[in-house]
Structures are given as C-alpha cells and as structure tokens.
Design a protein that fits this description.
This protein folds into two domains: 101 residues, no CATH class; 368 residues, Alkaline Phosphatase, subunit A (3-Layer(aba) Sandwich). Helices cover 31% and strands 15% of the residues. The protein contains 13 helices and 19 strands. Strand 11 and strand 12 form a beta hairpin. The longest helix is centred in the C-terminal third of the chain and has 22 residues. It is globular and about 75 Å long. The two termini are 39 Å apart.
C-alpha cells in the first residue's frame, strides 16, 4: 500500500438533519480514517472505509444460474447422509462415489438438497420438455414439443426485466434442436449459444459493478482489491478498532470479515481464483485454452463430441464472469441433451453416457447396496459437479464487486437439476427402488440449490417431503427469493417456505 498524508474525509461524511455531523459518528469515522492511513491505505481508500464504518447493508444484488445435468442420478451415490435426524447436520461426501462431494468443503453451508418433488407426467427423458415449466409432457397422447411455455430461468429473467445468458456445451445434435434438447423455453424453445468465445465477446462489454450513490462505477471493486493488499494482521487491526468504537454490525464489519475469510481460505487451500477485473479481460484459463483449440476450426467444432469437455469448462467460466461482473443477472448452462450418448472415457468412465452408463440398474439392498455396479455412472455425474465447482463456483467464492461485504455466491442462486430422477428406472417422482431387499433405496428427482440469493434463502439443510410436491412449488419460491412479486408459477400458488429466509 502507498503512504499518504492524512486528509479530512469530510467529503464522505454523513450529515445530520441540521447539517452537522453527529459527534459519535464523526469520532468513529475519523478514527477509522486515520487508522487506515496509518496502515498505508491511500486517502480515497481510507475515506471509503470510514464511510462504510457507519453504513448499514441495504438491498443486495441478486443473480440466478441454472445448471442442468443429464440423465438423473443413482441415489446410492447421490443422496446426502443426514445425521441424527437433524436436516441441518448432513454430509454430501459419504454416499458411495458422492456425486455432490465436490460441494462439501467450501459450499455445503450454502447448499439446500430438496427431496420429495415430482415432475409433470413423463415416463422417460422427454421430461426435459416440461419439468422446468411444470406443464404436461404429453398432449393428445403424443409428446408435446410445440405448446408455448416459460421455464423458471426465463420466468425470473422476465420478472427482472433482463435477458437470460443461455449457454450450451453440445446442447443439441449437430443437425439442430429437437425435442431432446429443448430444455429452456420463453414462449418458444431456446437455442443456447454453442460458442463460448462468441458468448464472452457479447457480454464482456456489459460488465459493470453497481456503484454506491455518488460513487465511481468501479468503486466497490477498487475498494475490494485495495483491501486484498492488506495483511491479515492489518485487517485484524482495523476490525479491532471498529469493534472498540461500535457494537453494531456495519457494512465495514461484514466487508472486513469477508476479506479475512477469503485470505484464510487462500492460506489453507492455496491461492485460488481472485476477483476478476470487470473493466479488463480477466484470466479465464479454460476459455483461453479453448481459444487456442478452436483456431482454424469450422463451426462444427462447437458441436463435436471430442470438443465437449473443453466447451463445458469454457462455458462455465463465461458464466462465472457474467455473474461476478453483472454482465448477466440470469445465466443458464446446458451440457449435452437428453438421450445423448457421448462416450465418457475422457474422464475414466468408458461407455455411452445415456445407454451404457445411466441405464445400469441398481443392485444389492438398502442395507448393503452394490456400490460398484453403478460407480462409472456416478463418477460421470460427479464430474459435472466438479466442473461446476472448478469453473464457476470457485470464481463466485470471492467478495462481490457490487457488494463487497458478501461473496458473490452469497448473492447468487444456482439451481442444479436433471430431467429425471433415476436413470435406469426413468423416474419423475419419489420412488422406492425395490430390489432383493425390503425396504428399497429411495430415489428422488435431483434438485439442489447453491448460494444465498442475497440473503433471501435459508441454506445448509436437507428438506424432505414424505408426499411429493410439484416442482413448481420450488420454482415459485426461487422466483420470490429473486425479488419477483409473483403469486404463481406453472400452476403453483404454494411456494416452498422452508427455504425462504
């Protein structure tokens, strides 16, 4: 940090109704201002810190992301282990391969696992057409792929008055969109952008931070970057100074706590991603690698099976950049499509994803399931979650440029879902998988939320309903958490209250 002579922070001080600064407030702001200067902060940064010492948290920015995983999950490798009947005490990493295991260490506290929901009538993967809108899959005895509908991510975006950044990694067959790829709808089926390079070029000019009243466009981001230059002892000194002057939880308190937590995480787990710059091109390694791979390639490259892993990693980084920099408030990422038979040998589970892997049936009993039987499929599904963690969630686990007292993930809702519950039995509701034992294994349609939604969600819980609820109840709750003043979604008028703060 550079040294600077003390300057009066008068330009940032709050006035009382008679135009004078209250004595206690003046003392607090001056003490923080001088302490920051003594630690080497520049005068503008010190003034911002002094101002935040009195500021209370206001409305927080909110973002939404949809992440689809095709072909369901094997429950013996997916279901969380709840301890002692307490839905807030659970493990994501004790079920076989533990498909949700990559979320355990850093993100379990902002996770909700939702069990006991049903999708509209569907007998197999055609549920991709309907589950996010809660409309029926069939009409007059045939699969209905023409009736206008609106899926939850577009419903939320429409309510916010923004567009969805729809990204696809081989989200449809090379010849075009058919019923197996029609995941997203806004009246008509949406074709996701297949080229991450094009997607990034379109949004990178839209990146902004939301400034405080009277602040510079990137003032919050600049403050966060300045604080990251403080040592842990300097941050501790600022926190001590603040706690000695006030017992209230101010914006500065939460800001310093977030920075301290980030530094502690970096110290124990390695450096990790730092906040990207929202005014210059960030370092997105998967996107950069794809740019090299795609040089000289035709447009067909972006729908080829052998391009899929690189495409998904790059699209997830584009999503992370868009969310962190407010280039898009609603993002959706669709890897593959229903009935897709890509060979997953690239990650160690050889065999076609749909026919060979997802159709492998469960074996054993509830008390003694044969975990090896579906281990290859479970590892493939865990790979999707690991990609989400590595290329999106890790980038959101940093102070929010628009709200540095919180992390981006705290202001975001990520909805993780699939078009069916169990891949071999093709379930669209809670099902007891009866094998040789009694009882069988319980299979639920996989619905998981990650993130706090700007304080609108209760998190860190496993919610299980003994009688299935329509998935629209959850989607209505998420819409309300995103700030929409709505009373219904897809025919539902009863939001899931257990996840709303």
């Amino acid at each position: 940090m550079s040294n600077a002579k003390p300057e009066s922070p008068g330009g940032v001080e709050s006035m009382s109704s008679n135009g004078r600064i209250p004595g206690a407030a003046h003392k607090l702001k001056r003490r923080i201002f001088l302490k920051a200067l003594a630690l080497g902060a520049t005068a503008p940064v010190a003034a911002r810190l002094a101002s935040e010492a009195l500021a209370q948290s206001g409305d927080r920015p909110k973002r939404f992301m949809l992440f689809y995983v095709p072909h369901g999950v094997p429950p013996e490798h997916f279901n969380p282990v709840v301890q002692g009947g307490d839905p807030t005490s659970f493990s994501l990493s004790q079920s076989g391969v533990s498909i949700l295991g990559p979320l355990e260490e850093r993100f379990k506290g902002v996770v909700n696992v939702l069990q006991g929901f049903k999708y509209p009538t569907a007998s197999t993967h055609e549920g991709i057409l309907s589950f996010l809108s809660n409309l029926e899959t069939f009409k007059n005895g045939a699969v209905d792929e023409v009736t206008p509908r609106t899926t939850v991510e577009h419903f939320i975006a429409n309510g916010l008055g923004v567009k969805v950044l729809a990204l696809g990694a081989c989200a449809h067959r090379p010849w075009g969109l058919d019923k197996d790829g029609k995941l997203m709808w806004n009246g008509e089926a949406i074709v996701p952008e297949k080229n991450p390079l094009v997607a990034f070029e379109k949004i990178s000019g839209n990146a902004t931070t939301t400034p405080p009243a009277g602040g510079a466009p990137n003032a919050e981001q600049e403050l966060t970057r300045a604080l990251l230059d403080f040592t842990e002892s300097e941050i501790s000194a600022l926190r001590t100074e603040l706690s000695a002057l006030t017992s209230e939880q101010t914006k500065l308190t939460t800001h310093l706590e977030a920075i301290a937590a980030l530094k502690a995480t970096a110290g124990s787990n390695g450096p990790g991603p730092m906040p990207v710059s929202c005014s210059t091109a960030p370092s997105l390694p998967a996107l950069d690698a794809l740019r090299t791979m795609a040089q000289g390639q035709s447009d067909e490259f972006f729908l080829r099976e052998d391009s899929f892993p690189a495409l998904l990693a790059a699209q997830l980084e584009v999503a992370a950049y868009a969310l962190q920099c407010n280039a898009a408030r609603v993002v959706a990422v669709q890897p593959m499509y229903a009935n897709c038979d890509f060979d997953f040998k690239f990650m160690g589970s050889p065999g076609s994803h749909h026919n060979a892997l997802s159709h492998t049936g469960p074996q054993g009993t509830l008390a003694n399931p044969d975990l090896k039987a579906r281990e290859p499929f479970a590892k493939a599904q865990r790979w999707f979650i690991q990609q989400l963690v590595d290329h999106t969630l890790s980038y959101l686990d940093v102070p929010d440029p628009a709200d540095p007292g919180h992390k981006v993930i705290d202001n975001t809702i990520v909805l993780l879902c699939s078009e069916i519950g169990e891949g071999a039995w093709h379930t669209s509701a809670t099902t007891e998988l009866k094998l040789s034992g009694d009882p069988g294994m319980m299979s639920y349609v996989p619905l998981v939320t990650i993130g706090g939604g700007g304080g609108a969600l209760k998190t860190g819980q496993v919610i299980t309903y003994p009688t299935d609820r329509p998935c629209a109840d959850l989607f209505l709750a998420l819409s309300k958490a995103m700030g929409l003043s709505v009373t219904s979604f897809g025919g539902s008028t009863t939001p899931v209250q257990e996840i709303l703060a």
